[in-house]
Amino acid sequence: MTDTETLRAHIATVLARARDRTHTLTDAVDETDLIAQHSPLMSPLVWDFAHIGNQEELWLVRDVGGREPVRADIDGMYDAFQNPRRDRPQLPLLRPDEARDYTRVVRDKVFDVLEANALKGHRLVDEGFAFGMIAQHEQQHDETMLATHQLRAGAAVLTAPPPPASRAPVAAEVLIPGGPFTMGTSTEPWALDNERPAHAVHVDAFVIDAAPVTNGQYLGFIEDGGYDDPRWWSDAGWRHRRTENLTAPAHWHPDPGGWLYTRFGVTRPLIPDEPVVHVCFHEARAYARWAGKRLPTEAEWEKSARFDPATGRSRRFPWGDDEPDETRANLGQRHLAPAPVGAYPRGASALGVHQLIGDVWEWTDTDFHGYPGFTAFPYREYSEVFFGDKYKVLRGGSFGTDAVACRGSFRNWDLPVRRQIFAGLRCARDPRPGEAG
Ligand SMILES: [Fe+2]
């Protein structure tokens, strides 16, 4: 096969993988459930479904392919900026069977476009970028739909094998030496605009937790009265804690025998060595303060994940440049839960930090901004309109993130009050005197 044929085959594989997952998430429930809004924070599943097809039509059929529109009449309805999530149930949305037909027609045309396109010659298609962007877009909506499933009331409809057990002890903390490292990327072909360009960043020596904070550790914060002690919370965090009456992560329930946790319709005792999930930024920050630590900055997180002290270069992933597989990271909804600490020793970074990729998104203490030299591509609404001090950066992906939408440079962002996403945390701190060598 030529390089272009190999690239076409790879694109076809990732597009098919995304669509299989979209079907798994939408076939699992009946029509009523697809149309219902399960939370004002979320779209009806059928909106996400048709929106996936509409974005694919706009970028790949019309823009890259230069083909006639399939359904130009629905563009406005599926424009995320024109229609906030809370308003989407009132729109005259495509019915589930119409959404299935529409997405299939679009996908058939995309495979024609893929066969005809040289995948080089201009930036939108070089190395298959637009196809990779659309595969990532579908997988990101699949993760959002998985979050909608977690908010949905009723019996369990999704099944998956449990994540692997812990197979190696993990140190409590790792010292990361001070000095420069390369943050972001200029070479990753499907990296999005906000990950670019690669640039040198000096980071002072710091200490980071070798694993995400677990349910058991977080329980210590609750039992110590952490939710009732304003010392640990920022002013905004404390106001939010009180207004929303937060007392524990979302989906936790107190029980005479200990805390229970409801996950995708199944209620079970909390698993102590599993990373905590469904905490907002304010809770993550309060936990870190209580623990005598802080959240890492985004640069600290990325240096822990990518910096290879032997070569001085930044890796694509913590373990190296190879694509993720099931021995290295818990990604892609292969399991419906984060894996316990120590489950992926082969996925550790060069500096010895575990489970940075997969399991839970990790809140950082950094606002979402463009890197020095940022240019919006292919449109301002992808990232640039979100830059500012409203959004906090999250890193590393969750068990619900697909490998195509996850790498050492990948950046996610959300409001500090959000906790329907699969987000947890790990802590960092400044070295103590003498500790930094
Ligand atoms: Fe979207």
From TrEMBL:
Its EC number is 1.14.99.50. One of its GO terms (molecular function) is iron ion binding. Gamma-L-glutamyl-L-cysteine binds at residues 85-88, 414, 418. It is an enzyme of class 1 (oxidoreductase). It catalyses: gamma-L-glutamyl-L-cysteine + hercynine + O2 = gamma-L-glutamyl-hercynylcysteine S-oxide + H2O. Pathway: Amino-acid biosynthesis; ergothioneine biosynthesis. Residues 15-145 form the DinB-like domain. Fe cation binds at residues 51, 137, 141. Residues 171-429 form the Sulfatase-modifying factor enzyme-like domain. It holds the Pfam family FGE-sulfatase. InterPro entries: CTDL_fold, DinB-like, DinB/YfiT-like, EgtB, EgtB_Actinobacteria, Sulfatase_Mod_Factor_Kinase, SUMF_dom, SUMF_sf. Its cofactor is Fe(2+). Keywords: Iron, Metal-binding, Monooxygenase, Oxidoreductase. Catalyzes the oxidative sulfurization of hercynine (N-alpha,N-alpha,N-alpha-trimethyl-L-histidine) into hercynyl-gamma-L-glutamyl-L-cysteine sulfoxide, a step in the biosynthesis pathway of ergothioneine. Belongs to the EgtB family. NCBIfam families: egtB_TIGR03440. This is Hercynine oxygenase. It comes from Stackebrandtia nassauensis (strain DSM 44728 / CIP 108903 / NRRL B-16338 / NBRC 102104 / LLR-40K-21). The gene is egtB.
